[in-house]
Amino acid sequence: MDLKTALLAGGIVTTGLMSGLLYGWSVSVIPGTRRVSAGNYVDTMQHINRAIVNPAFIIPFMGIPLVLGGAAIMQFRSGDHRRGWLLAGATATYVVGVLGVTIGRNVPLNDALDAFDLRGSADDAIERRRSSYEAPWNRWHYLRTIASVGSFALAAAAALVATDDG
Fold first, then answer.
1. How many Å apart are CA 137 and CA 101, to the nearest integer?
2. By the number of CB atoms within 10 A of the CB, which of 50, 52, 84, 148 ranks highest?
């Protein structure tokens, strides 16, 4: 397998994995956490937000634009502009819609939640903390999920489209 094909395949697989994670969270974790008390919700989300910062998540999460971008460059260099533009679109969609939203919106909400002292807070303060976190975090999460699925679809389309390199 040559580098051009490896980058295309790697971009599809890694983007698919991230899309699956974000989609799975949307349809399982969010509905599940809606059913728990505010204290349990805050405690659970604090633990999840700390646990997800690990190499198995961070490396693919941050590396996807490099793989997709590299795949786009390789396609353009080989003269396959159809695939190149689809992969460039996948890269831009991921960078703006997934990385940008996560770094600009979800992470600051996570940081604020992490700073909250659950053990030293009254029930009404815990309810307010949950309310100020849950709805905006979920809204931004749904947006990045849509962007991730869109990026995956563009990358997959690049593999399926007829080449224009002769």
1. 10
2. 148
Please give the single-letter amino acid code of residue 138. Answer: N
Domain-located, residue 165: no
Written as one string, the DSSP assignment of 26-66 is IIIIHHHHTTS-HHHHHHHHHHHHHHT-SHHHHHHHHHHHH
CA triplet 97, 101, 103: central angle to 5 degrees? 130
> Two tokens at 87?
């992969």
What is the tens place of the pLDDT at every residue in 129-163? 999 999 999 999 999 999 999 999 999 999 999 88
The count of structural domains within the chain is 1
Report the alpha-carbon distance of residue 69 to residue 49 in Å, rounded: 28
Whole-number Cα distances in Å, 59 to 1, 89, 101: 23, 21, 17
pTM of the full structure: 0.95
Give the domain extent around 59.
Answer: 3-160
Cα 14 vs. chain centroid, distance in angstroms?
A: 11
